[in-house]
Amino acid sequence: MSAVMVAKKVTRKWEKLPGKNTFCCDGRVMMARQKGVFYLTLFLIIGTCSLFFAFECPYLAVHLSPAIPVFAIVLFFFVMAMLLRTSFSDPGVLPRAQPDEAMYIEMEIEAANGNVPSGQRPPPRIRNVQINNQIVKLKYCYTCKIFRPPRASHCGICDNCVERFDHHCPWVGNCVGKRNYRYFYLFTLSLSLLTIYIFTFDIVHVVLRSVSDGFVQTLKETPGTVLEVLVCFFTLWSVVGLTGFHTYLVLLNQTTNEDIKGSWSGKNRVQNPYSHRNIVKNCCEVLCGPVYPSVLDRRGLMAELSSSPVMISNAKNYIPDLQTTKTTAPLIPNEQTPEEAKPPLQYRTEEATEPKQSPTVQELPAVDIPPASLTDTAPAKEQVF
Q1: Is 24 a catalytic residue?
Q2: Measured distance CA(376)–CA(364) in Å, rounded
């Protein structure tokens, strides 16, 4: 038995990723660090639906139809699933360049720009690519040390470049990009339907009870209904308006970032090279296209040095460092070779086929063994001079 240092302390790659993201569940959940508004979103949705299920659904199920609460429950779970899928996923973060890659890109830029006289600003770091007969400029990111792909942008809140960057949404606690935009759109669409659904049946509930009990008495008996109506009324305009805006973007195959900057309109007068000039094809590409895998490999393994020794039994192939010592018996038992043909001990990998009895006490040539920290705890008894 010998004690050997093993440098295999396993860590996940998400622990070393730069940027301002937080990870949970061993890298499976990825969000922004600012999650306060996301918790508010959960509270508003769950609180409003809880009041609706507690006060309105029992009355509506008896007097109108039991399908009303069933459909509301299905819609509620769909909204929550789309919200969590948008919030907990990688939006399409691009990995930063490695030091050697960044150095190579810098050398290419310097070779292309030449020597810039002192006092003059160097030219912008831009590359031009052609997409559907349109020239698209790729900008250089000084933080990530890469030329960003088309439609990518750097999020200042998460401090990462995101592919097909749409915007950073604090309500979902994450960026909205290439890998989670469809889930964000389905979340806003289903939330609009849920808000309209609850608001409508709140009004129906108040009307039905007012016929029998009176309007004033109904308000006194159902205070939760009044609160639901107010929340839905103020939420309705913002959520429905946001859904309408993103429906317009989906039909044009455009992002919020491109619309705000006026990339394909205004002074540029450049047509959108990503649009198919057909709203059906645009919708199919944005909402029904393939979901690309994450390029971060968040749960990949990394090896780091460990200071804890591991006891192993098969140490015959181990090549120790150079030190000399004297032992009372051979390190490899039952092995004898002529002294003039005997190689150093660290290169012996196979046992001799004809075993012989080990000598009791004799002087052996100086052999190489590992340093003191890597050997057995028992010291050598004799030393060769």
Answers
A1: no
A2: 19
